[in-house]
Amino acid sequence: MIYTVAVPTFYDEPKSGDHSTHGSRRSSAAPDSPGDGDDNSGGAAAAPMPELATAILPSTNDGRARIPKPAGEAGRPDRGGYSLRTALRSDPSLYPQLLKLARDLVTKHLSPSICYSAQSKRALAEAISDGSSQLPLLNEFQDCWPLVDALRMRLKEYLRNELSLRVNDS
């Protein structure tokens, strides 16, 4: 049985000066498919959100509460964020498994020379889907946020190492 879940855009929203679509997430461009934008039911049906990447993940509609993501950014506990290791303290073996999984998923699904926000949404969805199937405990977390944060951190590390190598080579 396969369920689909939308991966929120707040994880992969590009950081740009254009905030004109912030909020509604809809542009003034023509709808993506026939029927999009035609629904004036006043909230009876969910409005289509073309910017959400769809990942094949176990359903989160099973009535169980998921573990919410802490406030702030992972890896910045002194600047309003949190430590991923500390956030996962309920299962100490999860952190090293998560880091290894993120390393494997980055090399398998993503482009290590590109930051998280510039990655293909399809590739990110595939990486998250693959990761949640390899480490089912991640499904206990809302939107698999530990994996998303680990992928972000790993890509940042790749880019930092690549920049360091470029500086040392010149």
Describe what is shown at a glance:
With 170 residues, this protein is mainly alpha-helical. The protein contains four helices and two strands; from the N terminus they run ββαααα.
Describe this protein with a few key phrases:
170 residues, mainly alpha, 35% helix
What does this protein structure show overall?
This protein is mainly alpha-helical and 170 residues long. The protein has one domain (4-64, 79-169). The protein has helices at 84-87, 94-109, 121-134, 145-169, and strands spanning 4-7, 53-56. The chain has a two-stranded antiparallel ribbon. Helix 2 (94-109) crosses helix 4 (145-169). The model is unreliable at 8-59 (pLDDT under 50).
The neighbouring-strand order within the major sheet is 1-2
- The string of secondary-structure elements, in order, is EEHHHH
The total beta strand count reads 2
Number of helices: 4
Secondary structure class reads: mainly alpha
Into which percentage range does the β-strand content fall? Answer: under 5%
Helix share bin? 25-40%
Q: Radius of gyration over alpha carbons?
A: 18 Å
Domains (count)? 1
Mean pLDDT: 73
Low-confidence stretches: 8-59
Distance between the termini: 53 Å
Major sheet size, sense and barrel closure: 2 strands, antiparallel
Please tell me what the overall shape is.
globular
Biased composition (Basic and acidic residues): 12-21
Region (Disordered): 1-87
